[in-house]
């Protein structure tokens, strides 16, 4: 006992130490609580800390191990995005201060059954609807790499906690990049699962019953390595409540075990969509490095994607339809605005049931295009976002009328451009893994995403892991 591993060890390494009795769960939880006490005041990533609850769960985990129990994640401490229900722990969504759910979300119940020790909740924007993280209840979360910048959103507190060693695993949510953008901004890993690979119940905002007609939003794991993503994903994946009477999730293995065997598609640039030149350079350099290893690499995209205008119009309509009825005067304002996707937004907000089914039909055409595409390719590489971590801006839920902007290589662009690459996987329900690929000249992380074939989640996760082994992955921020 009394081994002092770094809180920056991987979750896999921590579990190895626990199983080998090199450290106890009680000792491991204390290490993480000390890390939170030391660094959270400057980062504001962890917004609800249940130290005594965690200590008791860690003690129980040690007792269980002493009795010979061998749960896969027994004694591992984690934090959870403040939108996912953990019984007895505040779940505010950044808006409702005293909401305490009585039941675990299904993915949390599975994680608890696997032996995880829950420590607390991490920061989010109001209603989980911004590319930054912070709210009036708890204040703003800062990026460990540069505290004047955002860790991203909406799972920004999750990514900041991971990057600063305050937790080895996280569970976040992803409607339009909310796992992958923060992962890229903080130099960690995030996986947006295939749409039906795990339960979506127990997210706030959201409904606590299965809703088969709801598409796009999912929950998924975040970690400091691809191996740990797989570890967490395996524990929480499975059919929705009600379907688990008969359905079993048996995902195929990754398509290849070596990088040189992968067929890698690189998303071509879009004329109207600027991307930070350092992200473009990182994607280009990754493609060149993969070619040198012997992988098949080509700049190509699924049929019908063209300049992404039609694809993003569909995404906007679906997101508008899924986020509830319009507020008074909203549609008139949108129609009169300069927002280039205003027609798509209005169509989603005011549409009938028939029009929604029409959107789902269009979505199925995108799914069909991906199915055909992945006959010839194994992963599609795109930016995770058009920018790297940017300086803090006013935090409020994004809408098409949002007046905030971003500067990309001296060009000012609308703030909502950040959704465009993210929804390449959300619209059709594809799995997508965000992974780090180096740093900017300012020392900020750069992240890309690997989009994979539907229900072949292990393919993009394993690809990210092979890139990590060959070229490097997470690096601890200076000062931590």
Could you please describe the fold and organization of this structure?
There is one protein chain. By secondary structure, this protein is α/β, with parallel strands linked by helices. 36% of the residues lie in helices and 15% in strands. It has 14 helices and 15 strands. The protein has helices at residues 11-19, 25-43, 51-66, 106-113, 156-163, 180-186, 226-236, 277-293, 309-322, 330-336, 342-350, 353-376, 419-426, 458-471; strands at residues 46-49, 77-81, 117-122, 134-135, 139-140, 169-174, 189-192, 218-223, 263-266, 296-299, 379-383, 405-408, 411-414, 432-439, 445-451. It has an eleven-stranded mixed sheet, with helices on both faces. Helix 7 packs antiparallel against helix 14. The longest helix is centred in the C-terminal third of the chain and has 24 residues, at 353-376. The two termini are 25 Å apart. The mean pLDDT is 95.
Secondary-structure map with pairings?
Blueprint: H1 11-19, H2 25-43, E1 46-49, H3 51-66, E2 77-81, H4 106-113, E3 117-122, E4 134-135, E5 139-140, H5 156-163, E6 169-174, H6 180-186, E7 189-192, E8 218-223, H7 226-236, E9 263-266, H8 277-293, E10 296-299, H9 309-322, H10 330-336, H11 342-350, H12 353-376, E11 379-383, E12 405-408, E13 411-414, H13 419-426, E14 432-439, E15 445-451, H14 458-471
Parallel strand pairs: 2-3, 2-6, 9-10, 9-11
Antiparallel strand pairs: 1-3, 4-5, 6-8, 7-8, 7-14, 11-15, 12-13, 14-15
Helix pairs in contact: 2-3, 5-6, 7-14, 9-11, 9-12, 10-11
């Amino acid at each position: 006992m009394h081994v002092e591993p770094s809180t920056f060890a991987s979750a896999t390494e921590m579990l190895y130490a626990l199983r080998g009795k090199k450290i106890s769960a009680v000792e491991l939880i204390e290490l993480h609580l000390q890390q939170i006490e030391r660094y959270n005041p400057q980062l504001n990533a962890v917004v609800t800390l249940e130290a005594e609850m965690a200590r008791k769960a860690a003690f129980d985990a040690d007792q269980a191990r002493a009795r010979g129990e061998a749960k896969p994640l027994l004694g591992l401490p984690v934090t959870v995005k403040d939108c996912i229900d953990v019984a007895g722990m505040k779940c505010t969504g950044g808006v409702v201060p005293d909401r305490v759910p009585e039941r675990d979300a299904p993915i949390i119940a599975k994680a608890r059954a696997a032996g995880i020790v829950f420590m607390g909740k991490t920061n989010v924007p109001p209603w989980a609807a911004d590319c930054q993280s912070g709210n009036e209840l708890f204040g703003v979360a800062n990026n460990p790499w540069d505290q004047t910048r955002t860790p991203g959103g909406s799972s920004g507190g999750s990514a900041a906690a991971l990057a600063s060693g305050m937790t080895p695993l996280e569970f976040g949510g992803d409607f339009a990049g909310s796992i992958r953008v923060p992962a890229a901004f903080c130099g960690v890993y995030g996986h947006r699962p295939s749409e039906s690979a795990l339960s979506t119940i127990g997210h706030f905002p959201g409904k606590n019953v299965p809703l088969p007609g709801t598409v796009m939003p999912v929950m998924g794991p975040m970690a400091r390595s691809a191996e740990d993503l797989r570890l967490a994903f395996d524990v929480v994946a499975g059919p929705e409540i009600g379907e688990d009477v008969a359905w079993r999730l048996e995902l195929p293995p990754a398509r290849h075990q070596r990088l040189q065997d992968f067929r890698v598609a690189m998303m071509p640039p879009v004329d109207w969509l600027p991307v930070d030149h350092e992200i473009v350079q990182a994607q280009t350099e990754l493609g060149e490095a993969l070619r040198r290893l012997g992988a098949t690499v080509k700049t190509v995209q699924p049929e019908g994607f063209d300049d992404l205008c039609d694809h993003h119009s569909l995404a906007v309509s679906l997101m508008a339809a899924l986020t509830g009825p319009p507020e008074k005067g909203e549609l008139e304002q949108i129609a009169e605005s300069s927002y280039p996707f205003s027609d798509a937004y209005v169509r989603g907000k005011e549409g009938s049931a028939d029009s929604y089914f029409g959107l789902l039909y269009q979505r199925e055409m995108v799914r069909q295009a991906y199915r055909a595409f992945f006959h010839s390719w194994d992963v599609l590489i795109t930016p995770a976002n058009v920018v790297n971590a940017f300086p803090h801006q006013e935090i409020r839920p994004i809408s098409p009328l949002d007046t905030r902007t971003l500067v990309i290589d001296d060009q000012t662009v609308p703030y909502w451009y950040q959704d465009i690459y993210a929804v390449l996987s959300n619209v059709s329900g594809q799995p997508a893994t965000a992974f780090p690929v180096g740093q900017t000249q300012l020392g900020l992380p750069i992240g890309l995403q690997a989009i994979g074939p539907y229900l072949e989640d292990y393919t993009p996760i394993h690809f990210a892991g092979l890139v990590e082994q060959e070229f490097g992955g997470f690096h601890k921020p200076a000062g931590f």
